Amino acid sequence: MAIQISSEILEGVVLSALKYDDLYGYALTQQVQSVFDISESTIYPVLRRLKKNKYLTTYDQPYQGRNRRYYQLTDLGRQRLNTIVNEWHDFYQKVNQALEDDNKDD
């Protein structure tokens, strides 16, 4: 897809992926990449920003002799996700309206 995904939408996608389960970085990256063609190096700055803004917390858990860093949605993160979803619905409706109105002139 040639349309670029905005950082706010990407934040929403990451927050949404964590809505029901905590995920470690690689699993989270794989989940997002199953929908959008983005690099792993794109996800980690988003995770750091979300953590800095207190939308996520992290904890480490041992796995096969190594630690996995898990990301967990906070209450503030759930509020942020709801805001992004509401803004997306509004934006989606406006874009569809504009595109449909444009097509009526054909």
TrEMBL record:
<dbReference type="InterPro" id="IPR005149">
    <property type="entry name" value="Tscrpt_reg_PadR_N"/>
</dbReference>
<dbReference type="InterPro" id="IPR052509">
    <property type="entry name" value="Metal_resp_DNA-bind_regulator"/>
</dbReference>
<dbReference type="Pfam" id="PF03551">
    <property type="entry name" value="PadR"/>
</dbReference>
<protein>
    <submittedName>
        <fullName>PadR family transcriptional regulator</fullName>
    </submittedName>
</protein>
<feature type="domain" description="Transcription regulator PadR N-terminal">
    <location>
        <begin position="14"/>
        <end position="82"/>
    </location>
</feature>
<dbReference type="InterPro" id="IPR036390">
    <property type="entry name" value="WH_DNA-bd_sf"/>
</dbReference>
<dbReference type="InterPro" id="IPR036388">
    <property type="entry name" value="WH-like_DNA-bd_sf"/>
</dbReference>
